[in-house]
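Worked example (supplementary).
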Amino acid sequence: MFEAPLLAAAGLIIIGLFAVLFKTNLIKIAIGVTLIESGVNLFLITTGYRKGAVAPIYTLAPEGQQMVLPTPQALTLTAIVIGFATTALLLSLAVALYKHHGTLDARKIRRLRG
Amino acid sequence: MGNSVRWLVFLFAATFLLAGLLSIHPVGEPINTAMDDYFLAWGQAETGANNIVTSVVFDYRAFDTLGEATVLFTAVSGIVALFRGVKTR
Amino acid sequence: MKPMSKIVTTVTDVIIWFILTFGIYIVLHGHLTPGGGFQGGAVLASAVALFVVAYGKDRARAYLSKNFYSVVECLGLVLFTIVGFAGMKATFLYNLLAGTGGLFGNVVTQGVNPGDLNTAGIIPILNVGIGLEVVGGLSLIVISMLWGLWDVFGVHEERGGIDV
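After joint prediction of all chains, the assembly is encoded as:
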């Protein structure tokens, strides 16, 4: 019932959720979003595991063994690339906000200036 | 947004997350594997690639890869546009 | 930003070619070994980042330009779309070169085998397209963020980093 990969994924998501909700520094919020994405990718790969199986590649594979499911690995590849692009954009926006307002505190960046 | 609302949302999300993750199938015996068994049995003959993950990403689901390439392109063009208007270039 | 010490620049001179070769190997053998377009593109972009870190501001600004990597990125995406339209008789992105005997067209022996590079239809061409796009994209991100930070905040006199 208490499997190790699922507990690790849940722990990562809970820590990331805490950082997004309770911290006010923009860089710490970006770190929280990255932690949530890592937890979700780990969970995706765990759903496709078969006990005692090898990687789904036929080049010089060991004979007569089952193979792991290939579809969750394909989806996780896409998710990692999209998560990286989102994090890069988030950090660039943080740099632009610091240049404009002079602070990185999310409570002080409230007014829309013309 | 007060502090108590944030605690409520955090506890709600954490409880549902743990309850959901502990009630799926046990790790190691996947259910509903008909599509993946077809990919593992026929992927080498139909696409000619030894790597089944690459044949899923680039042949059976190549349209999703095109969408992902577009997302990467859009994010990069947004970053280049953000750092554009500085004098000493 | 001053260049790093003599040891670092000498090792970078030697090792950057090995990194480039390894990245191109990962991209081209995507249908035989673990890897493919995305992973090989990330390895190639790390060579660009190593060059910027080891050689400092002046040399990096003289050698790397944004227009080159922009052209490389757009070329990759356009190659992907054109190869997709080539098999339009059946459907978009149809694998029309697999098993026919022409370019990339050998037939694969079933089961476990040592890999043959000449197989798998349009998959190596799509891998090359995605690899070019990822190299262009990641290098553009590193270059524009670094140039932008140096221009906005100025360079610290002694340490050589950003003067925040």
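Two points are worth noting when inspecting this output. The interface with chain C takes residues 44-51, 53-55, 57-59, 62-63, 65-66, 69-70, 72-73, 75-76, 79-80, 82-83, 86-89 of chain B (CB under 8 Å). The mean pLDDT of chain B is 88.
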